[in-house]
Every structure is written in C-alpha cells, then in structure tokens.
Amino acid sequence: MSRTKLFALKHPYPRQSWNKQAVYNLYRYRMPQTSRKTFYQQKFRAKQETRRFHGEYLTERKWNSMFRHTLRGVVRMNPAIMAKDDGSSVVSGRGTGIDPKPLRMVELPKDIERRRKELKDANPQPIPFMQMTYAPLERRLDTAVYRALFASSVRQARMMCLHGKVFVNGVKMPHAGYMLNPGDMFSIDPLLVMKAIGGPERKPFKQLSTQAKSDLQKAIEEAQSKTKSSTYLKSSNKKVLAGNAAAEVDTETFTAAGVKSESTTTTTTETETEGEPTTSSSSSTDKIVTEAGGDEETSAGNKKFHLPSDWRTYLPKHPRWKIYDEWRPKRFMNLFAFIPRYLEVNHHICHAVYLRHPVARSGGAEVPNPFNDGVMQLAFNWYLRRR
Amino acid sequence: MPPRLRPSSLPSTSNVIPQSFSSSPLLPFLLPSYHIYTQTPTSSSRNFSTSKPAYRRVRFEKTEGTRNGFVDWMKKVGGRLNVPSPQDNVPVYLSYEPAPLPTRFPVAKGSDVCRKRDPGVSRKQAKRDAVDWTQVTDKARHSPFPTNASFKVHPVISTEFREQIYLRMKADRSVRRISAEVNCELERVAAVIRLKEIEKRWIEEKRPLCTEMQTRVHAMMPVSQYSTFPQHESITDLRIHSQTNNQLFLSVPESMPFNRKDAAEALGLLPADVRMPHSELIEVEKMKLDGVDVQTMVKVEMEREQREAEETKAKRERREKRLGAGKVVETERFRFRLKPANAAAVGHRYGVPAEDRKRGINKIPTRVL
C-alpha cells in the first residue's frame, strides 16, 4: 500500500510536488550514504529513494514492466567537420586514429597548459546515461502534464487525467498511464490549469466597500425580480443565480452587508417559475446603473448606485473571467518552472506537444530529478539485476 | 505452555474492592495473592507496558524540530525562495546553501592564494569577494536541483519567437528550412506551428487566451529571445543506435580506407551522414569548402527543396489513396474502412474478435489518431 502521508516532516521523502512541505523536504534532502554499507544495501537504498520521487503511486510490479535497460542518447554532429572528413582518420595510423596535433617531445609548460585546455574543449563531457533510468515514466500522460506546468504535482495531474480533463489529440484520455507517442498533442481546459498552478483564489467582494456591496446586492436583486426587463442576465446566468449553491453562498455574504435573505429567496423562486429567455443580451454598465437607479426611485427615492466599473465580474458566475488578467502563480512555482526539451508547450491555450522521447546528451539528461549520477547508477543496477 | 490469563479478564481493584477500602493500608492483604504483584490499577489492558495505550496516544506525535523547524524555515528561507515574478528573467531555483560563503579561507580568482586581506576589509567581505558570483549565479540559473549537476534547464522559445516561426511558415517555407534558419529542432518547429494554428483559431473564435499566465510563466524560466540569427539548440543531434553500443571485431585491410560508410555497413546501419537530421547541411558545407559561389549554392538548395516537396506530396497522395480506397464509416470508437472482400476464399476470417476483455490484455490505448 502506498504511503498516505506524502509530505511527512519527520521522515522526509523527496516528492514531485510544489507543496510547501515538499519544498522543505527537498531543501533539506541529503543523498543516501554509501559508506559502511554492502553493495546490496546501497542499491536497495538508492532504489528506495529514487522510487519515492519517481512514480511513487505505481506499484513496483508496474514499474518493473516499464523499465528498459536500453537508454536513449544523442550525439551532436558537426556538419562542417563531417564535410571535411569522411571518418577514415579515426581508424588510420595503427588503428587508433591520427592525432591532428601531436605532442612534441619537448614542450614548454605554457604549451602543455594550452594543450590541456584544448583537449578539454575537444573532449566533451560524458553522457549521463544513468539519469535516464526513469525515462519511461516521462512518457506517461500524467507526468507529461506535470512537466508541461499544467499541474502542481504529478498526483494532481493524475487526478486531472482520471477525471477526464485531459485530451490527447482532441480525444478524451481518462487513463493516466497512457504512454505518449512522439507528436501527440495533449490539452487541458485553461481555467482548470490556471486554478491548478495559480495562487490562492481571488475573494470576490473583498476589495469592495460596504456601500458598493449593498449596491451590488440591490442590483442583482433588481435583476432577479424583473424577469422581462432585466437587460444583463441571460437565461443561463439566471439559472446559475437561481439554483447554484455557490450563488446562494454569495447571497448569504450579501446578507451580512445588511440585506435580508428572505427577499432574495423569494425572488429566485420567482425567476425559476417565470424563467423565460430575455430578449436583449447586450449590456453596458452605465445603462444598467441608470436603469436600475430609475427603478430604485420608487422605493429608495432617487438614489444612484455606486458600482465599480467592472461590477459584472463580481457576479457569482463571472469571477472566472477575471482570472485571465489577474492570474498569480502558486507559491514556490518558480523553483520548478522549467520545461524539458522533449515538450513544446503553449500556455496561451494550454496545449502541449510531446516532441520525442527524452534523451541524454553530453553533459546533461532530460529527466528532471534531484539525484546525482552515483545514486541513479545504483538504482539502475537494482532493476538490471532482475533482467 | 499453559494458557495465559489475559490481564483484562482478571479481577482488578476497581471491580473487586469497594471504594471505601481503596485507601486502606491493609489493601494488599485483602486482595487475592496474584494481585499483590501487579501494578496499581491502571486503565490499560496491557499491564506490563509502560507506554500509553493506543487510545491515549496522540495520533501524530508532536516533536521539536520537525513542525517547528518547518515553521521556522518558512519564515526565514521560504520567503526568499518564493519569487513569483523574478526580475530580468533570471530564474530562482532551489539552492541548498542558505549563505553560499566558503567555509575555508578563500582562494582568490587567480591561482595565487590570498592569505592577507586588505586593511579595512572585513573577513566576511573578503570571503564574499573571493566567490566567483557570476559562476555561482550561472550555475544556479541552469540547475534547479543543486544536487544533480546532470540536469540543466534549457531555455524555452519566447512567444515572439513562436510568432516568427509561424510567419515563416505562412511565407511558404518548409519545416526543414525554418528549422535550419532559426536553429530549432525539426519536431519543435512542427509543434510550434501546430500550436500556433490552434491559437489563431481561438483568437478568431474570440476565446480568451491566458496571456497573463504565459508571460508570468516565461518570466520564471530562462527564455531564448528571437534575434536575426537565433541560436536556440543543436539541430543535428544524432540518435545513438543501440546496435553501436556493442563491440564488433572486424578485420580490415590496412591498405584500404575505412570510413563512416564502411563502419555503418559493418554494423548493418545507414551511415551517420544519412541518419543525421539536416543531413543536407553536409552538402552545403562541402560546397563551401569547394568554393562554390553563393548564387549556385542557393540554386542547388532550391532545387533540392523542390524535389523534396514533390516527393512528400507524392507520398501523401499515395497514402490518401490507400486509406481512402474503401468507404470509411466513423463511429465513436472505431473508424471502419470498408473494402471489398473475397468471402469465398478458403479459411478466410471475416474479422478478429476484440481481445480487450481478456485477462492480461491492456485496455489503455497505445495510440490516439
């Protein structure tokens, strides 16, 4: 059974999440010690530590079936050199290749220094193949969603998949374990993404003054009571105002501002019974303000509303529209804000393309993880053992 | 071994002795013998255990240094690490050293060890001066996990860059050519165009775009901006074939040349000159070496492009012809391609039953078209 406490502080494990406790655990994480341990112990510990980070929700059996001992790598070719040389110089001489700049018998120390530098430049860094041990997991749909910065943890991404929010090539894909093929495009509803990787939700009415709040409430009531002449409520919005739980909560918050809730409930029932599609959907703010103010004359006596210019966005249905302009990143997002090279992401539309399988190249691998090459090699050896 | 009596089933002081007796000094003598040696009455069923019973124990014990340490860290370090809008596109990644100052006395930027510090310079300041901060920031900028030097962040292409790629596509340039021009991988260029087309469609449909999120996400990571000759990434990455990982012993005549082509043949592969993406660049370089003038080079390249375009077009037509041979019936789950069948053939099967209900067969689709 998987561990229920994911971000425990007492026995911290590294996890793929932007959770604050996960960040704290990652911050103080130290690599497992290898001294005074048998090779078996070292391998087991490395496997434990790395599996806690990579797909901890997968059973060992499942991961074992995904593991491959062949690791993908890539070499950068230089067309200029290839044009000059057909490769025969590598095997010429006595079979080990000709050195284009052989060492002289007597060399000045300065020359040796320069030579050393040249050699260092010519010999690129090694390819960290071992970092590719968990590369098969990167093909999974949930991991790719997390890597594309569409979710704040792999588990959240997995939940999105299972709830049918993720589409692959325009087709709903409710399997988190779907293995992406090169060229697959996956997408999520932008509103969901903004909520998932965004900061705390905006509290509607928070910035409004008491006066504005009460005015807003009166405007909404006005709109609800007058079914025919209300200019701004479409039938869909009306339904939301009448039956939505969130809308009712909002009216309750209004009552705190000094308006009775009974009147609201009666008006909502009225709208439900008389619910007919309103004629005009076009609505400008001043129009409503003047209109509503005109009706208010009978009851309150020639009183104008003090509504903010963007008051429509404060309606229960509408705060979502404000998210597009007022989006803020989730806490600690900047620590994980990177997109691996095998993905091409467009956050404007929350679509991403899986270009190819991740590869290792000289000096760097494309699988993000906090473990060094030694630990990954031990983990790789652990899984290799059973092949 | 005789069956043991469970302590809870034994009579205890609470049910044997009346309340008035409980403070009597004669209590030990009033009790049955086995009670003399037991503990004074406890509510525990496990009389020999010193730890609290399960129902008394706190579910998650509060210990010093775990939760409190976390709260302290959030106050001291957490705020420093959380930078929602970094300045000048310099990302802030996790750094394990709260104060990255050397513990030993510093070595100066040159090779000389500086043991003496200038008068008027504090020890801390001297240490701070000795750190190569450009190197430190550069390292921090590209490695989100300081313990893993092998994972480096590669910049993503900016929104303007994407727009430029899309404009080049609109100017009827091939993906291959755009890729060579802007130094992006072939797949990336194709993907950018696909995504950009959806974006344009959304704009037409007046669907809102998450522009704010896009800008803020890009502000948090390294971004490669568009320039006249952008250098984004290597476009000639050759995939290492698994066949080349094994050693191969081959006797070769000393007098004969042995080049890449021969090596590929020995391994049973195509030579790297062909397998490499953008292999046409080799031809261009060869022409450069031969001293061919630019006009001829452009002409040759144009011819090659045209030839390739024709080839791909013919290939696509052939494919469409093959796929559209019969009637196509689209259902929710399947795309039936109906072909005229010869039912009279002996042993012919009309169809294969779906196996996805069988045990051990994976129901997760392997590809989505």
From TrEMBL, chain A:
Residue ranges annotated for the RNA-binding S4 domain, each copy included: 139-202
Residue ranges with Low complexity bias: 261-285
Keyword flag Calcium: no
Organism this protein belongs to: Arthrobotrys oligospora (strain ATCC 24927 / CBS 115.81 / DSM 1491) (Nematode-trapping fungus)
Chain coiled-coil ranges: none
Stored InterPro entries: Ribosomal_uS4 (IPR022801), S4_RNA-bd (IPR002942), S4_RNA-bd_sf (IPR036986)
Example GO BP: ribosomal small subunit biogenesis
A Pfam family reported for this protein in Swiss-Prot or TrEMBL: S4
Cellular component terms per the entry's GO annotation: mitochondrial small ribosomal subunit
Protein's recorded name: RNA-binding S4 domain-containing protein
Region listing for Disordered, in residue ranges: 257-303
Keywords: Ribonucleoprotein, Ribosomal protein, RNA-binding, rRNA-binding
Family affiliation: Belongs to the universal ribosomal protein uS4 family.
GO MF: rRNA binding; structural constituent of ribosome
UniProtKB/TrEMBL annotation, chain B:
PANTHER family xrefs: 37S RIBOSOMAL PROTEIN S35, MITOCHONDRIAL, SMALL RIBOSOMAL SUBUNIT PROTEIN MS45
GO cellular component: mitochondrial small ribosomal subunit
Any one of the GO BP annotations: mitochondrial translation
Protein name as catalogued: 37S ribosomal protein S35, mitochondrial
A Pfam entry, by short name: Bot1p
MF (Gene Ontology): structural constituent of ribosome
Start-end of Basic and acidic residues biased regions: 304-314
InterPro entries: Ribosomal_mS45
Region spans: Disordered: 304-324
Top-rank taxon, per record: Eukaryota
